[in-house]
Design a protein that fits this description.
The complex is a heterodimer. By secondary structure, chain A is α/β, with parallel strands linked by helices. Helices cover 24% and strands 19% of the residues of chain A. The chains are: A alpha/beta, B mainly alpha. The structure holds flavin-adenine dinucleotide. Chain B: InterPro entries: DUF5987.
Chain lengths: 546, 189
């Protein structure tokens, strides 16, 4: 069944960072806005602490296994902000000067850290993002910090979008924050967009775009069953004068590829230059006695550590290798991280075990010591080597499970450059954590689902060179006026740190230009709304930082 | 033994159980247990509910189990022939394989170059998930029934309302020098 075609000023596809920010500014400026989001719309009280297939935890996730790269992302209103760990650092200055695989500066000339800083400030105020303090760093972060210091390194609690007064350190933040301590988009940009009249439609999966005679676009969607996402219900369409694509770096290029038959040729860079943000994971198993003896750590109850489960994702990072003087591909950050069981244990390899090290007896032995695990997350400089193959029939993957698991068209073959960064980081992690017998550590295997990223980027990137960027520096799709892309796919390459703040800052930066483009298409809209909740957010942020 | 339609039920179960037991090995349920190799002395993936999870239609593998069962036994028979092993034909070929050979075969099937890798990795993924997160039942129920996987990993149970909270969570002090290039907002410069 197909419903009648509606029309509006702006359709936003996806409700993560890119989508929510665009929806808010357009709505606040007076445009009619409809947000189409493929996932469900859950509120705090619906976020369960439950691993059961079909619970909120599996409903809000999308795990797409590709050929050589798997991508984990959010699948709900609020997108990745609902499942993310809310670690929100700015990208270091050297990142914007990177050359990557194209041999010259890959960022548009108009963007640098200095001129992105005001946009970072805006997002930091809206969520808010605060500088975290040592006295509230959970045990796992403390352990990583102590190990770094013992090895002569520095370590930092990075800025985070978490209200620590509300946080109970349950470490369920990947399943959505039950306590509204994590500043997801459900608490700022999205309610503000709603207040200004935007419509948000969950379980609406956009399949493709076609062009209308008036120069606008028709956005075609299917309704997704709210329990079994493999089941698609009726289809519909909405006409818009301007379209903002923000389905995430694993989905935006797929929608564009599928639209190519109707819209005409896409820029070469659509679905190319994908980056996994140079991500790599290591799991360490700590010797509790050595933690006590070497690092002098202990916690109530007589344990030295044994607290992997306690906390809130990453809380301490090491930035020693974020040194712009080092050659490209040798710079990376290390971040302590919690991964819950289920997703986070199968890829961990038992340190020192003979092949197979990811299953069997040595793995079970390792699992017995799970509370003494520490996961270290590397974010390095990869080579933008991911390429999307032909799009699946619907969505961005062939769905295997009713929720969460799918099989997608992304192909990723890490180059020697990427491997150099990973190998250097692995060695650094080993040097820090195995010192004086503190722990045994091994990287996650790439053999099962390829490399693994929670930070997909650059599959439809901005740039000055039409041959290697799908978007101009205003985020408009080359050759297709009126289509803008504001999600992680627009970021040109790996950032060496967590990307959400940069994605958000770029979306904020793109807003004045997108509003102007809407005005040129006859939409009555103005730019200039303050950050959502701005009256108090800045003061709250300052008070928490003090 | 070549499985036929009449005994496909129990043979299928035993074969899939033997696979799950290779991923996370456990103790035998009885001395005559063939599916579980008995390589470890506490409950493994089978006791954790791997079969229940795999058979849930929502997981996406349930429909494939029949063909996985046949294919796995074909591979096992081929493996045995190649390695000169004579298999007892009371049970399906994979079940008849000794633990270390089951392990070697699963390693081959899940290796990057194997054409059916994706299928076997998915089976391993679900076997593991049954053990470490009991994805077929609610976590509260799993903890109440002393689920062997959650017990093995030492998972801390939640508060009475089913939600986890950890009021004690921090060593509470500075444990490393901060990077000298940190900005006033706490970011890398
Ligand atoms: C477990 C986890 C932890 C993370 N932790 C951090 C962290 O600590 N710090 C950090 O900076 N980043 C973190 N990230 C990454 C961060 O969440 C993403 O970088 C960010 O959300 C990307 O924003 P986006 O706008 O590009 O896309 P998303 O936030 O992914 O939003 C895209 C939205 O589009 C929807 N969508 C997809 N296809 C369609 C379609 N066809 N039609 C309609 N809607 C569609 C999706 O459901 C989704 O809601 C984490 C990610 C994960 C998965």
């Amino acid at each position: 069944m197909t419903t009648a075609t509606e029309s509006t000023d702006v359709v936003v596809i996806g409700s993560g960072f890119g989508g929510a920010i665009a929806a808010y500014h357009f709505a606040a400026g007076g445009a009619r806005v409809v947000v189409l989001e493929r996932g469900p719309w859950l509120k705090a009280e619906e976020f369960e602490h439950d691993y059961k297939l079909g619970s909120s935890y599996t409903r809000v996730f999308d795990f797409v296994v590709g050929d050589g790269m798997s991508v984990l992302s959010g699948n709900c209103v609020g997108g990745g902000s609902v499942v993310y760990f809310a670690t929100m650092p700015r990208a270091p200055r050297f990142v914007f000067e990177r050359h990557g695989s194209i041999g010259r500066r890959m960022w548009p000339a108009s963007i640098s850290r200095d001129n992105l800083d005001p946009w970072y400030d805006r997002v930091a105020e809206a969520l808010p993002v605060t500088r975290q303090s040592w006295d509230r760093v959970p045990y796992a972060g403390g352990l990583f910090a102590a190990a770094c210091a013992h090895a002569g390194r520095t370590a930092n609690p990075p800025p985070a979008a978490v209200d620590l007064d509300e946080c109970v350190n349950c470490n369920w933040m990947m399943a959505g924050c039950r306590f509204d301590a994590k500043r997801s988009l459900l608490l700022n940009y999205l309610p503000a967009a709603l207040a200004h009249g935007a419509g948000i439609r969950p379980l609406h999966e956009v399949q493709q775009l076609t062009r209308n005679d008036d120069g606008g676009y028709r956005v075609h969607y299917r309704i997704i069953d709210d329990e079994d996402y493999r089941i698609l219900h009726e289809s519909g369409a909405i006409d818009a004068k301007l379209v903002v694509l923000a389905a995430g770096a694993g989905a935006t290029p797929v929608i564009l590829q599928r639209s190519e038959a109707a819209l005409g040729p896409m820029p070469h860079a659509v679905g190319r230059y994908f980056s996994g943000n140079g991500e790599r994971l290591n799991t360490a198993v700590f010797d509790e006695d050595r933690v006590r003896e070497v690092l002098g750590l202990s916690r109530p109850g007589g344990h030295a550590y044994a607290a992997y489960q306690i906390g809130r994702g990453p809380t301490v990072a090491s930035w020693d290798r974020l040194d712009g003087r080092l050659p490209e591909y040798e710079r990376f950050s290390l971040e302590q991280l919690y991964f819950p069981p289920g997703l986070g244990t199968i890829l961990a390899q038992a340190p020192g075990a003979a092949d197979p090290s990811w299953f069997g007896l040595p793995k079970k032995e390792m699992l017995r010591r799970w509370q003494s695990w520490l996961t270290i997350f590397t974010m390095s400089e990869d080579d933008n080597e991911g390429v999307f193959g032909p799009p699946p029939e619907t969505g961005n993957a062939h769905r295997l499970s009713m929720q969460m698991l799918g099989d997608g068209p992304l192909r990723y073959r890490p180059t020697p450059n990427t491997w150099r960064g990973w190998s250097l980081a692995d060695a650094e992690v080993k040097d820090i954590l195995e010192r004086d017998g503190l722990a045994r550590v091994a990287p996650w295997t790439n053999d099962l689902v390829g490399a693994y990223t929670v930070h997909p980027l650059a599959s439809c990137r901005i740039g000055d060179d039409p041959a290697t960027s799908a978007l101009d520096d205003r985020h408009e799709l080359r050759g297709h006026p009126g289509i803008f892309v504001t999600d992680g796919s627009a970021v040109p390459g790996a950032l060496t740190v967590n990307p959400a703040l940069t994605i958000a800052a770029l979306a904020e930066r793109a807003m004045p230009g997108m509003v102007r483009a809407a005005q040129e298409r006859g939409v009555a809209v103005r730019y200039g709304a303050p950050a959502p909740g701005a009256g108090t957010a800045a003061r709250v942020a300052t008070a928490q930082t003090a | 033994m070549q499985p036929d339609e009449h005994d496909a039920g129990p043979a299928r179960t035993a074969t899939i159980e033997a696979f799950a037991d290779t991923i996370i090995p456990g103790e035998k349920r009885s001395p005559g247990d063939r599916a579980i190799a008995g390589a470890d002395s506490t409950g493994g993936a089978v006791a954790a509910g791997a079969l229940e999870l795999l058979e849930q239609p929502g997981g996406g593998l349930a429909e494939a189990l029949d063909s996985l069962f046949y294919t796995l036994n074909d591979h096992a028979a081929g493996y045995a022939a190649k390695h000169g092993l004579v298999l007892d034909d009371d049970v399906p070929a994979f079940v008849a394989l000794p633990f270390e050979h089951r392990t070697a075969l699963v390693r081959e099937l899940t290796a990057p170059e194997h054409p059916e890798k994706q299928m076997w990795v998915a089976l391993a993924l679900f076997s593991n998930m049954a053990f470490d997160s009991a994805a077929h039942i609610s976590t509260a129920e799993a903890l109440a029934s002393r689920h062997p996987g959650l017990l093995t990993i030492g998972y801390f149970p939640p508060d009475a309302d089913g939600l986890s909270r950890f009021p004690q969570y921090s060593y509470g002090r500075v444990l490393a020098p901060s990077h000298p290039q940190t900005t006033v907002t706490g970011d890398p410069a």
